[in-house]
Amino acid sequence: MLNKYPLWKYLIVVFVLAIGLFYAAPNLYAPDPALQITGESSAQVIDDAILKRATDALEEAGIAHFGETIDPDGRNALVRLRDSEQQLTAQARVHRALGDGFIVALNLAETTPDWLSGLGGQPMKLGLDLSGGVHFKLEVDIDAATERRQEYYLNAVKRALREDRVRGFVSLDEQGNVVSQFRTEQLREQARAIIAENHPELYLDRVEEADTFRIVASMTEQTLREIAEYAVSQNLTTIRNRVNELGVSEPLVQRQGKNRIVVELPGIQDTAEAKRILGKVANLEFRLVANMDAPAADKQQFDYRSADRAGMSEWLERDVIITGEHVSNAAASFDQNGRPNVQISLDSEGGSLMSRATRHNVKRRMGVLFIERKYRTRYEMNEAGEEVAIQIPYDEKKLLTAPVIQSALGAQFQITGLDSPLESSELALMLRAGALAAPISFVEERTIGPSLGAENIRLGVKSVQYGLALVVLFMVVYYRVFGVFAVVALSFNLVMLVAMMSILGATLTLPGIAGIVLTVGMAVDANVLIFSRIREELNGGRSPQMAIHAGYDAALSTILDANITTLIVAVILYAVGTGPVKGFAVTLSVGILTSMFTAIIVTRAMVNLTYGGRKLKSLPIGGVNKA
Amino acid sequence: MKIINFMGQRKLAVVFSTVLLIAAIASLATRQLNWGLDFTGGTLVEVYYSDSANLNTIRDTLGQGGYEGAAVMSFGTEQDVLIRLPQGHSDKEGSALVSLLQDNYDGNVELRRIEFVGPQVGDELREQGGLAMLLALGLVMLYIAFRFQFKFAVGAVVALIHDVIITLGFFSITGMEFDLTVLAALLAVIGYSLNDTIVVSDRIRENFRKLRRSDPIEVINISLTETLGRTLVTSLTTLLVLLALALFGGEMINAFAIALIVGVGIGTYSSIYVAANTLIMMGVSKEDLIIPVKEGADQEDLTP
Question: Might you name a Gene Ontology BP term for this protein (chain B) (predicted)?
Fold first, then answer.
C-alpha cells in the first residue's frame, strides 16, 4: 500500500483548484457606485457633450467622479462615483442637468480587471435582499382573457350565421359556451357546418331540448391553454419593455408558474414610481393617412418612432378606425416569397370596423400610431423652500408604420413591405405591447432598503467567518494534522463554491449565505467519516498506510449515498421553491458537489503527498489507542 | 472498543419519542403555527429610527392614522421596528405608513423594507411547501429502497417524519414565526437527518454482512457504537456553524438558524433511536441483506 497518486492526478487537482481561484477572484473586487445614462428613445445617442453636461453638474455639486465611459454604440454612458452615499444626490443632479429624454439610473459598475473578464470571469450577482431594491409579483387575469375570447366567439358565430342567412338564436351560457338554438334539425346542420368551417378549434355538441335544436360550442383544453399562454407572454413582453424604460441596471422579469410574473428591480426605492411605469397603459391607433387636399382641421402630423426614420413624419386623419384593444394578436412571419411580414388579428368588432373603413379606401395608406403615457418633470419650490420634482403626465403618439392598403381588410390581415425580419419582429412586438393585454394585478411586493442590504451582507460574512473559525478550531484539535488537511480542503471548498456560483451566474441571497454556512458545517462530514474510519482501522491493528487506504475506500460509498440523498432534497427545493428557498437550494446543491471533490480528492492528494510511499509507525490523526 | 447497549433503552426511546410527538401534534392541532407574512398575506414594514423608538407612541400614531390592528414590535434592536398590517390593506399603504411615522417623529425614520403579500399567494405557498415535503420524502424513500432495502427506507422515512413533526411542534409551542426561510430550513433538516440515518444504515448493512453474529439488536448496537463518534462530531460541527448563524446572522435569518438547530438536534437523536428502532420493530435480519432482493437492488454490493 503506497498511497501515491500518479503525477497527472496531482496536476488535475492543482488545475481544478487554480481554475476555482481564478473564477472566484472577481468577487474580490468591490464594485464602484455609478450612474448609468441612457436615452429615453433608442434614437438618442450619448456623446461626449452630453457626458460633459452630466459631469459638470456633478462638479458643481462637489461630487467626486471618475472613469467615465460611453458604450461603443453610444447607447449608454457610465459615470463612476467615489462615494456611494452621494449616489442619490448625484442621480437627481444629473437628471436635472440633462432634463427629460434621458434616463439616469443607479448602477454598480464592476471593477473586474480586463484579464479576468476577458476569460469570462464575473462576480456573483447579489439578490435583492443583499443589494436593496424592489420585488414585485404580478398576476395575469386569465379569466378576463378567456371571457374576452368567449365574447369574440359569440360575435363571430352570430355574424357568420347572419351572413349565410341561417336563422337562430345565439347566446353565451353560464360556462361561457356559445349556444345556438334552431327551430329545425336542418337549420342546425347547416349552422354546424358553418361554425365548424370558421372555427375548427371549437368542440361542437348537439343537444335537443324542449323542441329546439341546439349546438353547444365549447373551447377545448388546448384553446384555453393557448389563451392563458398568450395572455401571460404578451404581458411579459409589455412589462419587459416598460422595465427597460425604468433604466434599472440589471432588471429581472421572469415568468413564474402558470400566471405569475416576477419583476425585480435592484437599486430602486420608489415603488410608487416603479408601479406607475409598470402599470402604464400603452395603446395603438389605426388611422388613414390624410389626403393631400384634406382641410387642416381634419388632419394631424406625427413623427416616426423608429430611429431609422428619425425626423420623418406623416399627416394622418383625425378619425380613428380602431384602437389597440381590438388587436388580439400580432406575429412576425414570412409570405410565400420569403419576405418578412407581420400578421395581425383583430377581434370581430375590430374586424368589421376595419373592413368598413378600408373597403372604399384601397390604395390609400393607413398609419399605425403607438401611444405611450409619459411624464415630464417640473421643478417647483414647496412651502418649506425645498425644491421638489413634479411629474406631469402626457400622451406621446408616434407613428410605427404607414403601409398601403392593398385590398379591403378584415379581422385578419398582414403588413408587408418590411425591410428585414428584424423590422417585422420589432413591429410585431410594438403592436403587441400596444394592444390591451389581459389585466394584471400586484399580488406581492417587497422593498428592501440599501442599508438593510449592506447590513445583511455584513452579517452574512460575519457568520461565515465565525462558523468557519469554530469548525477549524475543532477539527485541528480533534484530528491534528489530518484536521489541518480537512480545514484546507474546506477553504478550497468555499473558493470552489464561490467560483461555481460566479460561473453559473447564480444569484447570491441571504438564505444563500445561510446555505454556504450550512455547507461549511456539513462539508467536513465527509472528512469526519473518512478520518474516523482510518482511526478504526488503526485501532483494528492495520498499518498506517493500509488504514489510510481502507479508510478512504470504505467511507466512499457512505459519502456518496449520504450526499446523493441530500442532493435529491436540494433539487426538489429548487424545483418547487420560490425566491429565498431557491437561493438556499442553489448554494446547498453546489456546495454538496464541490465538497465531494474537495473532501475526498483534495484531502487524499494532500495525505498522499505528505505520507504516501513512506514507512510510518503512526499517524497524527488523534484518538488512537496506544495499546 | 466497548459496545454501548443503545437498543437496551429502546423502550424508553419509544416512550420519549411518543411523548414529543403527541405534544407536537397536540400543539399543532390546537395552536397551529404562527404563520409568517409569506403564508398569511398582508403588509409588513420595517423601519429604522435614528433614536430608540417608543413602541407605544408608534402604536398611537398608527391607531389615529387609521391603521387599526397593526402589530408593532421591535426587531432585534431598540431602533428597529417591525409593523405588521393584517390582510385587507392595499399594496399601496406601506410607503404611506412610513411617511405617517416620519411626520410624527422629530428624528429620522429610515425605511428598511416593505413586504406586501396578496392573499392568493399564501395559500398556494402552503400547498407547495407541503407538496415539496411529500415529494422529498417519497423520492428519498425510493432511493434508499433501491440502494439498501425496503425496511431501511421505512426506517429512514419514519425518522424523517418524526423530525419534521417535532420541529414543527417546536415552532407551534414557542409561537415563533413560521416563514418561508423556516420552510427551507425544514427541508434542509430532512436532508441532514437523512445524511445521518444513511451513515448509520450503511454501517448496519455492512456489519450484518461482515459479522458472524446474527442477533439484530447486537449488530445494530455494534454499528451504532462504531458510528457514534462520527455522528457526534458531524452534529457538533454543524451545530457550531448554526450557532454562529443564529448569533451573528441577523434577525432575518434567526428563525432559519433556530429551526435548523432544533432539527439537527432531533435528527441526531432520531438516526440513533428512531431509524434503528424501526428496523428492529420490522424484524430486520441478516437474510434481508444477504439474499439479493427481487428488484436486484443490492447486486453491485455483493461483489466488492
Answer: protein transport by the Sec complex
For residues A605 and A457, membership in a common domain is answered with: yes
Mean pLDDT of B250-264: 87
Name residue, grid cell 388587436: A327
- A511 interaction partners in chain B (CB closer than 8 Å): 181, 184, 253, 256
Alpha carbons B176 and A233: distance in angstroms, whole number:
40
- B272 with B170, same domain: the answer is yes
Its pTM stands at 0.72
pLDDT digits (tens, 9 = 90+) for B139-173: 888 888 888 888 888 988 899 999 999 999 999 99
Q: How far is B133 from chain A (nearest CA, A)?
A: 9
In a domain, B303, yes or no: no
- A449 and B248 in contact by Cβ < 8 A? no
CA B1, B6, B9, B12: dihedral to nearest 10 degrees? 150
| Domain end position, chosen among A72, A93, A109 | A109
Q: Rounded to 5 degrees, what are φ and ψ at A545?
A: -65, -45
Contact A521 B91 (CB under 8 A): no
What is the distance, to the nearest Å, from the Cα of residue A225 to the centroid of all Cα atoms in its chain?
22
Cβ of B249 under 8 Å from any chain A Cβ?
A: yes
Question: Residue B302: pLDDT band by 50, 70, 90 thresholds?
Answer: very low
Instruction: Work out the minimum CA distance from A475 to partner chain B, whole angstroms.
Output: 9
Residue B294 counted as domain residue: no
Contact A585, B190 (CB under 8 A): no
Residue A622 confidence class, pLDDT cut points 50, 70, 90: confident
Nearest C-alpha in A relative to B113: A448
Please answer yes or no on whether A467 and B188 come within 8 Å at the CB atom: no
Residue span of the structural domain in which A562 resides: 7-26+453-611
Instruction: Say yes or no to pLDDT of A627 above 50.
Output: no
Q: How many CB atoms lie within 10 A of CB A272?
A: 10
Q: Work out the average pLDDT over A259-264.
A: 86
Range from A100-114, A295-309, B175-189 carrying the lowest mean pLDDT: A100-114
pLDDT above 90 covers a percentage of chain B that reads: 13
CB contact under 8 A, A580 and B184: yes
CB burial of residue A42 (10 Å; 0-12, 13-18, 19+): middle
Tracing cell 435582499 back to the chain, one arrives at A129
ipTM of the complex: 0.79
Nearest CA-CA distance, residue B56 and chain A, Å: 24
B 90-129 residues inside an 8 A Cβ radius of A:
91-92, 94-95, 110-118, 120-121, 125, 128-129
How many domains does chain B contain in total?
2
Chain A nearest C-alpha distance from B113 (Å): 4
Nearest residue on chain A to B246, alpha-carbon basis: A463
Cα–Cα distance, A146 to A176 (Å, whole number): 9
Instruction: Verify that A169 and A239 share a domain, yes or no.
Output: yes
Closest alpha carbon within chain A to B247? A463
What average pLDDT does range A117-124 have in this prediction? 82
What single string gives the DSSP state of each residue in B182-236?
HHHHHHHHHHHHHHHHHHHHHHHHHHHHH-S---HHHHHHHHHHHHHHHHHHHHH
Containing domain of residue B91, as a range? 42-117
- Asked if residues B25 and B164 have their Cβ atoms less than 8 Å apart, the reply is no
- Domain contains A627: no
CB contact under 8 A, A518 and B188: yes
